[in-house]
Fold this sequence. Notes:
- The chain has a domain at 36-125: Sporulation related repeat (Alpha-Beta Plaits, 2-Layer Sandwich).
- The protein is α+β, with helices and mostly antiparallel strands.
- The chain has helices spanning 6-21, 36-51, 67-80, 105-118; strands at residues 58-65, 86-91, 94-102, 123-125.
- Strand 2 (86-91) and strand 3 form a beta hairpin.
Amino acid sequence: MRILTIKNIFYYSLILSILSSNLKAQDRNLTITQDPKFEQLLNEKRKTNASITVNERYKIQVFSGDGEKAKKILNDCKQDFTDLDGTIVFNTPNYKVWVGNFRTKIEAERNLIDIRRKYENAYLIKPQK
Length: 129
C-alpha cells in the first residue's frame, strides 16, 4: 500500500476543491402540461367517491338508470328542492340519484310527499353500511 505524501494530498485536495466548486444542484424549472380532460375525470371520480359515504340516515331515491340522465335529474332536483342535498351513487350497472339526509323516517316521509309530486317513482330508502 502506497502512502501519500503531503505534496500529493495537497494536490488532490486542490483538484477536488476546484472540481466541486463548479458543481451545481438541479436548478431547472419543470413545467408539466396535462390534458384538461384528465382534471375533469379526476373531479368526476372525487364526486363519485364522496357520494359513496353511507350513513344511518334516510334518503329518497329519485332515479335509477344511466349516468347522463342521472346528472340531469340531479340538477333538476337541486333546482326544485334547494333545501335538500343530492348525490349520485353508482351501483353496477345503474346510477342512482339520492336526495336528502333525514334523521327520522317521519321527516323523510314528509319530504317524500312533496318529491313524489314531481318524481312519481321516488321512494324512501335507508342505506345499509
